[in-house]
Amino acid sequence: MDSTPKKKTTTSTRATNAREASRSPGEEVRLNHFLAQVGIASRRACDQIIAAGRVRVDGRVVKEMGTRVVPGFNAIEVDRVVIGRPPKRIVLLMHKPKGFVSTVTDPEGRPTVADLVKPIARRQRLFPVGRLDVNTTGALLMTNDGLLCYKLTHPRYGVPRVYHVRVRGRFDDTTQRRLERLAQEGMREYGRREKRPRRSRPGVELVAKLPKETILKITLLEGRNRQVRAMIEAVGLRVNSLKRVSFGPVSVRKLPLGGIRPLDQRELDRLEAAVGGLGVGNR
C-alpha cells in the first residue's frame, strides 16, 4: 500500500489548474513576424527591438529572432507593455479614401491612415488591421488590440473580405472560372491543415456588365499584398477601381468615403465570433 502522503488540493489550486487547462495552445509563429503584424514596427525594426532585449515572453527577456510564440497563449511584452491585451480595446472602422498608405508611418513621407484617425484617437496608438493599397478604397479596421488584429488577418481563421472591382476587358465564363481558381488557390494549404468547416468560401460573382466595364464581387479569406489586382491582371483584365466593401461582419455600406466610426458592441461580438474568440485575451 502506498504510504506517500497525498498533496492537499486547495480551492485556489483547483482554480489555477482549471485556468491552465482551458488555455489550449494554437499555432506557433515567429516572434518578429507577430510583432510586425500587430503594428509594433517593420519586420527589420522588430528584429532590432528583440535584439536590444526590449521584448519579454512569459516574463523572460528574449533576444533570439527565431523565437516562436502562440499569440493569445504566451504573454508578450514590448518595453513592459503587454501586446494584445490593451486596458481598453478600441476598434474603429474607416472608409479609406485613395492616396493614404495603410501603415502607421511612411518612410517616403506619404499621408497614412494613422493621420486620419489622430483627431479621433487622440493619444491612443492605433494600427491598421491588414492593408489596403494606396489607390484602393473601402473598409479598413484600426485597433489597439494586437491579438484581435493577428487573428483577423491570419488565413487560418478565414475571415472573409469582400471587394467590388470595376474592370475593363473581355469577361466571360472562362475568365470567371480562372478568377475563382485564383481566389481559392491561397487557401488550399490552410484548408488541408484546418478541420473545422468554413463559414464562407472564396469566390467571384458577376454584379453587372456595363458598356465599357464589368463590375465583379470578389470574396477572399486572406489578405495578401495586391492580391485582387494581381488576380485581375493574371486573366488579362485591367482594374478601373477597387473597393473593399466589408471585412468580416463589418461593412462600410452606410459610411461615407473618408468617414470613421467606432464599432458598436454587437459588431465587436461578431468580430470575436468570426475568429472563435480571443482565448486568454478575451474581455
Class by SSE composition? alpha+beta
Number of domains as seen in the coordinates: 2
Spell out the CATH superfamily of the largest domain: Pseudouridine synthase
What's the pLDDT, averaged over the residues?
Answer: 82
User: What is the element string, with H for helices and E for strands?
Assistant: HEHHEEEEEEHEEHEHHEEHEEEH
Total helices: the number is 9
How many beta-strand segments?
A: 15
Report the uncertain regions: 1-25, 192-197
Radius of gyration: 22 Å
Helix proportion of residues, in percent?
A: 25-40%
- State the name of the first-level CATH class of the largest domain: Alpha Beta
Description:
With 283 residues, the protein is of the alpha+beta class. It folds into two domains: 22-82, Roll (Structural Genomics Hypothetical 15.5 Kd Protein In mrcA-pckA Intergenic Region, Chain A); 91-281, Pseudouridine synthase (2-Layer Sandwich). It contains nine helices and 15 strands. Strands 7, 8, 9, 10, 11, 12, 13, 14 and 15 form a nine-stranded mixed β-sheet that branches. A hairpin with a 2-residue loop joins strand 2 and strand 3. The chain is globular, with a radius of gyration of 22 Å. 31% of the residues are buried. Mean pLDDT is 82; it is low at 1-25 and 192-197.
